[in-house]
Amino acid sequence: MSKKSFRQAINEALRQEMRRDPTVILMGEDVAGGRGGSAGIKDAWGGVLGVTKGLLEEFGDTRVLDTPITEASYIGAAAGAAVTGLRPVAELMFVDFVGCCLDQIMNQAAKFRYMFGGKARTPLVIRAMFGAGFNAAAQHSQALYPLFTHIPGLKVVIPSSPYEAKGLLISAIRDDDPVIFLENKVMYDEEEDVPDEPYAIPFGEANLTREGRDVTIVAFGRMVGLANQAADRLEKKGISCTVIDPRTTSPLDRDTILECVADTGRLVIVDESSPRCNMATDIAALVAEEAFDTLRAPIRRVVPPHTPVPFATVLETLYLPSVDRIEAAVTATMAHRVVEKV
Amino acid sequence: MTHDITPITMPKFGLAMTEGKIAGWMVEPGAAIKTGDELVDIETSKITNAFESPVTGTLRRQVASNGEMLPVGALIGVVADPAVPDTDIDAFITRFQADFAASSDTQSDNAAVDEPVMMTVGDHTLRVHERGEGDGTPLLLIHGFGGDLKNWMLNHAALARGRRVIAFDLPGHGESSKDVGPGTLAFFADVAAQLLAQLKIRQMHVMGHSLGGGIALTLAHTVPQSVASLVLVAPAGLGPQINMDFINGFIEADRVRAVQDVLKYLVHDKSLIGRRMSDDVLRYKRLDGVQTALRTVADACFPGGHQGDDLRPVLAGEDVPVTVIWGREDEILPATQADGLSSSVERHILPDIGHMPQLECADKVNEMVEDFMKSKVIAT
After folding, report:
1. Which residues belong to any copy of the Transketolase-like pyrimidine-binding domain (chain A) (predicted)?
2. Which one of B256, B275, B288 has the shortest CB-CB distance to A199?
3. Is the predicted ipTM greater than 0.90, yes or no?
4. Does A341 reside within a domain?
5. Range of the domain at A221
């Protein structure tokens, strides 16, 4: 057990699964280190943010494949390789690039099992980084997980810490269905204790990072850390919060969310993706439908405005949910009093 | 009347503890307290413990609030006479916090010496934690089913005064490699013997808890010359009965709440089982190979839902000094299994204690073990 960054935890998961299973391969733009061109340097970077560094050296260029800058071709190739016996981990770099290969994901990989009558397995992982806060502008900062969650046949994973990232990525690689694995790019340097041994965290089982009486906060990815900070501040003011990290948006651990809301009667959802048809609306609908009678206050959503992610740092900071905004939402839901109609 | 101000700081329950969480204050600011009064519940990764006031006075401040996680030594409260003015208290807190911040910067350089190491022993990689030095006969600590060396967090350092004390993770447990071979007591005893050989220890006291007690007994049977004495804490091997709801529940539980329910069998005071302890167990159970390892051990040691090994004959001879420590309220292995042992066996049956006396009443157990080992040194 030692402290590892989010980046190292992901690298270690890839390395250990590649050692365990020779059918696991990596492909994507620059995953081998950007050695394109005749005088390229092997493993110079290990992906644009260094996540796959050192893997080319250990596994060679038959298992760590640099691809041309054509998402449609290599994501399609990865889906084909998966359905014919390999376990590819394809890296899309910025999730925003999914626009170039959505057909391969949405109409092909996600549909194979269903349309081939359950006779096809598609053990494909698509890794991509997402999220604002990196000052990477509107085309490199989106949090598109609601888009994938919307498509039946895909599993969607959003790790919230280094420990979670390693165990969830190992589960993703071992899974026989296509998995979209989304890494918030602001988190790569965050560190915590991560076991050296391989371990798998199951999908569809939410993690409670705090347990409290008053308010349930559901948060995804990096927002879990912000929700924990808000919960710690609120604890000092005598408000105790449960914080749920669903880990996967598809499958979604509905039971845990409904149980916790039944315990607390108040719900705040923190979601950094665009606010229309996002996870916050999805969970709000779930709770409104299934647990209406347990609610003691309106559901509150802490979400960005419905705009592209701004490039200007001050605006980008304002755009994202923050600890302050989560704290304010919890305080507001606590202040709500049900007024009996006369 | 005194104008002393006493800082209440995050305690260190055993050397492995580096931080703790305020699980709940039991005393309001302004309340009068006596030495020994329970002030606050502190939650560590292993256990939740009540922290007792070291002084008599008035709790003037709760510096740390419920739910806060703080390093050992950090200020959590202030005790002083009611006559001490608030401004003095504030100044004291400011000064303490500044000093603490400064000292923790320098400490981080020479910390991390007292750490477990990974050792290759035969076909296994074992996590081994050695503490203490001196002329005393060394002591080996063997944890139980599903446990790890941190089960001794409240004992290891205390027992390591004047002797080497070695704790390790059994194969299949903690951070050791996960191959448990046939999963039998004999297999584990053989691994322990190999570890001793590698550490160049000819003879030592062996303290085993639960399944580890059964392993210690097996070791005393197979390699008697290596065992100076046995300390058996709620040991396996002295009767057929075992709570299989615990064993199966421990193997199968896959959520924090389910794990927490299962772990409650371990202790009499159920409030000792915190979230973090359950989380730790869940993290261990997710490691590759653990599920298979635990199932193999359970099948080998508890066939048909009963303990398969009868080790009472090992205690029939009077060759090795033995003390047995058992919680009367043990819900996993009944304390009545300590009945009918040879009169030369020392027995301590502890009231209001469950299956883990070494955690539930660590100080008492440490004292018993220390006394026992001392008396045996004099006797031999």
Report:
1. 4-190
2. B288
3. no
4. no
5. 207-335
